[in-house]
# Entry
Amino acid sequence: MTDLTDLGVAAIRDGVATGAFTATEVATAFNTAVAEANDALNAFIVTTPDAALAAAARVDAMRAAGEPLGKMAGVPIGMKDLFATQGVQTTAASKILEGFTPEYESTVSAKLWDAGAGMLGKLNLDQFAMGSSNETSAFGNVISPWRRPGDTAPLAPGGSSGGSSAAVAARIAPAATGTDTGGSIRQPAAFTGISGIKPTYGRCSRWGVVAFASSLDQAGPMARDVTDCAIMLEAMAGFDPKDSTSLDLPVPEWSAALSSDLRGKKVGIPREYRLDGMDADVARVWDEGIAWLKDAGAEVIDISLPHTKYALPTYYIIAPAEASSNLARYDGVRYGLRDLPQGAGLQDMYAATRAAGFGDEVKRRILIGTYVLSAGFYDAYYTQAQKVRTLIARDFSQAFEQVDVILAPTAPTAAFALGENSDDPLAMYLNDVFSVPASLAGLPAMSVPAGLDRNGLPLGLQVIGRAFDEQGVLDAGLALEQRAAFSARPAKWW
Amino acid sequence: MSVDTATVAKIASLARIRVSDAEIEAMVPELNGILAWVEQLGEVDVTGVEPMTAVIPNTLRLRDDVVNADPLTGGDIRDKVLANAPAAEHGFFGVPKVIE
# Structure
C-alpha cells in the first residue's frame, strides 16, 4: 500500500472521496509521523492527534452517509500557532501567551475545519512571527529536516512560519497554514523546498490571528505543490465581516482554472533585484526560471522597480510601529502571563509582565516602534515611511501596466545554519530583501521550489502578481513547477 | 538621529517594558544600528506623495446596529471573556489596587 504520508492535499482528498483509503487511516499515518519526528524537529508546540482523528471520523461518516465532502475532506494539516483555536493553547510562540486557551476559533481555521480538514497540532514559529529563522520562539528552535551532505549542523527552516515549512518538508503534514507579514510564508517555503502563497492583502480574514503588523499580515497555505496551495487557499479565503480589511469578493476556483500555458502572458524581470555580489546559485536558478517561463510561452521583459532598495528600511519602520501598538494589549490583565512583583502597583505590573513575557527580538521591535511613533519623530520616520510605501506600491502598479507577473528569487541564499545570523539583527532582516516589497504593496506572491544550491539545499523562485490575480501567480508557479521537476527531499534522519 | 541611554529608558517606560541598566546599555548600539540604517529613507524625494493609508482600496463598513449582530463578538459571554484572565474576581478583571 502507498505510504499515505507521501501524499499531498489533492491526492488525499481524492483518495478519501473514492474510498482508496479512509480519512482515519490518513490521520493515523500522519499522527504517527508527527510523534516520531517532533522531538527532533520541534515543529509542533502542541500536537492534537485526537482532533485529527475526530475530524477524520466525521469525514468518514459523511462519506458513508453519501453526504457531499468539502474541499479539504480527510486532509490533516498543521496549524501555525498564530491562529486562535478553540480549546487548544495558542501562544504565538511567546511566554506571554503560554497557557492561553481561546474560547473562539479564528475565521481561517474554522473555514478549514468546515472544509473537512483536521488538525495535527499547533506549529512552532518565530515569536509573534518576528524572525526569519525560527530562532526567536520561546518554545525552542525548529530544526529543518534538510541537512548539508555529510554535515549534521542544524539548519534554519526559515521564518516566521518555520514549523509549517519543516512539517511539510519532512512529510509529517501534507500542508500547513502560514502567515506572511514580510515574507514569512515565502522564505521558509524556499528554504525547505515546498510551495507557499501569500494572497492579496484582505483575501484571508485576520480575525482570530494574533496581530503583528495589521496592514501587512496575511494568511496563506504552505504545501508540497502549486495545486495543493490553490485548493487550500480556496478553503481559507473569503469575506469576513469581522475583519474590517477583509475583501468583499467571491473566491475564485483557482485550482479548477490552473493552467501552465503562458502564451500571450508577459513576465517582468526587475533589474533592481539583481544585487551586486548575488549568490551564484540564486542567480543561476533565476536565469533557469526565466528560460522555463519562456518555454511556457511567456514573453520576458526587463522592468524597473526603482524604489526596491528602500523597501526593507520602510518595512522596518512600519512593521515595528504597528507591532508596538498591537502588542500593547499584553498587559497581564485580560489573558496570558501576569508578573506581579511584591507590593507592585498597576504600572509596575504591566512593565514586569511585559519584561518577563516578551523575547528579545519582540522587545527590540516594540522599542523601535515606540520610538518612531513618539512625539517629535513621527513625521521623520513613520510618515516618511508611509510615503515611500506609496512609491513602492506605485512602482509595482506601473510595472503591471507592462507585464502580467514578476519573477524574482524568493530569498538571497539557501538555508543558513542556526546561530549563523542570530547575533546581528540587521543581517537577519536582509533575508527578506526580495519578499518585503510585495508585502508592502499588498500583492499576491508565491514561492515554488526551483532547484538546489551547491550544498544540495533548496532554492525557491518567487512570482509576484497584480492585486486580486492569484490565478496569474498560481499559473506561472505551475509552469515553473512543471519545468523545475523538483523532486529532492530531505533524507529521514529523525 | 541616535538614541542614548536616557532615551532608551524613556522609550522602554513608554512601552511599559521593565529594563535593567545593563539591558539598556546593550540596546543602545543595537537600536542605533537599526535607526542609522532606516534613515536612508530621508534621501527619497517624496514631494507631493501622500502617505499610504490602505494598501488595497477598501471602504470601512459599519455592522448592523443591533444587539449581538454576531454571536461570536456579541454580549452575554462574560465567563468566556474572563476565562483566560490571570486574576478574575467577582465577574471582573482583577488588578492591583490603584486608589490609595
User: Anything to note?
Assistant: Chain B is about 35% helix and 5% strand. The first strand of chain B starts at residue 88 and ends at 89.
